[in-house]
Amino acid sequence: MKTTLLRWGLLSLLAFAPLAALRAEPVIIVHKGLEGQALDPATVKSVLLGKKVAWDNGSRVTIAALKSGPVADGALKAAVDQTASQFLNHWRRLAMTGGGLAPKSFESEAEVLKFVAETPGAIGFVDSTTADASVVVVKAGG
Question: How far apart, in whole angstroms, are the C-alpha atoms of residue 58 and residue 89?
């Protein structure tokens, strides 16, 4: 009886796991010190494109970006209407013309999460299932 229940429980878990993945979505995350800041879509876009370099509380903006992948593309498409490749090219142009410092680039969402949690003024993007209480979550599209 216990074995049967355990099997059904595992099968149910496996059956519904893909549904949870479908609900996951890219989110913008910011350092906890930015809680209460204006984080509307226009502000997030200005920050990610380098037009706004300091937060309202005076802290300097530091962008943490995934190098590539569906989470990067999804978050950037929603926030600034660019793919990860377009976003990185945008920042390369800005850096070459003296218009700003390129975002810190990371291979994994865990690295982005850790960096944003530990860096005052930081903003980044991860999947909603990766985000935790160490950061403030803002939906990527606003």
Answer: 27
Considering only 12-26, 46-60, 101-115, 125-139, which range has the smallest mean pLDDT? 12-26
CA distance linking residue 37 with residue 34, whole number of Å: 5
Q: Tell me the three state secondary structure of residue 83.
A: coil
Asked if residue 30 is part of any domain, the answer here is: yes
Count structural domains, the chain.
1
Query: What are the b/e assignments for 35-67, b being 16+ CB within 10 Å?
Result: eebebebebbbebbbbeeeebeeebebbbbbbe
Q: Which domain holds residue 64?
A: 24-139
Tens of pLDDT, residue by residue over 76-117, are 999 999 999 999 999 999 999 988 888 999 999 999 999 999
